[in-house]
Write a structure and sequence with these properties.
The protein has a domain of 39 residues: Histone, subunit A (Orthogonal Bundle). Helices cover 40% and strands 4% of the residues. The chain has 3 helices and 2 strands. Strands 1-2 form a two-stranded antiparallel ribbon. A hairpin with a 2-residue loop joins strand 1 and strand 2. Helix 1 packs across helix 2.
Length: 96
């Protein structure tokens, strides 16, 4: 599939992008090359390839231990707040 400059201008307008005349021609060429590559990939026979549920199937990932490392300091932080009630920060009403 080949894109024209008009196609690029239409796409840019729909995406609310400002594209100049020179950029539109350049983008049309670049995007057409990308679409041509995708068309080539669509031709590849992948019927004998089994889909993967995970790229590391059969491999073991080293995971860190799920341990709490941070200390609960909410009281310390709330001492700096202008107003606090029941552990919640009170802020002025902004929307009427």
């Amino acid at each position: 599939m080949s894109l024209t400059r008009n196609n690029v201008e239409t796409i840019a307008r729909l995406a609310r992008l400002a594209v100049t005349e020179d950029e539109a021609s350049s983008y049309a060429s670049s995007l057409s090359k990308i679409l041509h590559l995708v068309e080539q990939l669509n031709v590849a026979d992948v019927s004998a390839i089994e889909p993967m549920a995970h790229p590391l199937a059969g491999m073991v990932q080293r995971l860190r231990a799920d341990e709490v490392t941070a200390v609960d300091e909410h009281e310390k932080f709330q001492r700096n707040a202008a107003k606090v009630s029941s552990g919640l920060y009170l802020v002025p009403k902004v929307i009427e």
